[in-house]
Amino acid sequence: MKKTIITAAMSLFAAFAISCGSNNGKNKLVVEGDESKFDTLSYVIGVDFSNSLGRDFSNITFSHDLLKKGMSTILLGGDEVTVEGKEINLETISEILPEFFNNYRQRTMTLMQNERAKTDSTIQAVPAEQLGFNPETMFVDDKECAIVSAALGVDVGNTLLKRNLPLHTIWLFKAMDDAKAGSARMNNEEVNSFLRHYYSVVVPTNNRKASEEWLSGIENTSGVNKTASGLLYKIEEAGNMDKKAESDTAVVRVHYKGTLRDGKVFDASRFEDMPEARRQMLKQYRPNDYDKNEPVEFPLNRVIKGWTEGLQLVGEGGKITLWVPSELAYGERGAGQDIGPNEALRFDVEIVEVNPVKADAETK
């Protein structure tokens, strides 16, 4: 199964899907750390990232120091780093990295053409003085190398931040230094074994414990009720109880906002509530109506169990807050990049319209 967080991140760079969205200040899980106290997770991630970088971009000579500088700036709460007079942040990397990697593809094709020209007289080689870049580094000059390296560091740092990992940067960067020097304390097999255990055992266990503690605190809050299934809910407005979903095949139209335990929004129907990455995507692909704010429509048997149950508790025009245990949400699988295994979730839902007529819909 080797699909670690870092190799997944590297595939993003290869596909030019650049990170976006603010880190919203310092991540309390990320600290500089203590050199006298070895942190295995940070070291493993550093080695895995360096190995991935060497494998996926073996012919690019990045500036190791500026790569680390970009990562450190973002991981420890900064917003940008200035290199060669260029301000490098989460906004500018969306221009820097795609442009470089598009050029990188062209440069690679040119070098392949020159290689084929050695054995095929019908192919004309491009003279070295006309290449416009250094084939030993794949950069035009030191300035381009510096800017791209720092931008890649910013992107990797932001990717790691969004994973909410407890990192010690001193050991993350020590691992990168060791891997670069060929003296890493752990080999690939040990790194992969640690990451498999961490993501399949440690993370789900920690998430379950934290979610249970979170829900326990909410359960004791005034106005919060609990169903037999374990769903917690608070009716903000009852709505029209003469027009409410009576079964799981009813069709509803809703506005909603979904948040994690730490308050991070992972999904929403209204533009102003959406995560920054989603807003930027809508602006790009729907420039004329990105903030249209249409309600979402679905039969209740096509959504998570917590919604199926919870949205039958209020009527049309009603508003309800749901705190959904993981077993009534996405369970051990999680969902997407934001929702990990065994994560409890919060949803604020406004029921715009209810069609109580049974829909001819598929079973969940």
Protein model, in words:
- Helix content is 40%, strand content 16%.
- By secondary structure, the protein is α+β, with helices and mostly antiparallel strands.
- The strands form three sheets. Strands 3, 4, 6, 7, 8, 10 and 11 form a seven-stranded antiparallel beta sheet that branches. Strands 1-2 form a two-stranded antiparallel ribbon.
- The longest helix has 32 residues, at 188-219.
- The two termini are 28 Å apart.
- The model is unreliable at 1-25 (pLDDT under 50).
- Major β-sheet profile: 7 strands, antiparallel
Structural class: alpha+beta
Question: In whole angstroms, how far apart are the ends?
Answer: 28 Å
Poorly predicted sequence stretches spanning 5 or more consecutive residues: 1-25
Instruction: Label the overall shape.
Output: elongated
Number of helices, counting only DSSP H or I runs of 4 residues or more: 9
Chain oligomer state: single chain
Overall number of structural domains:
2
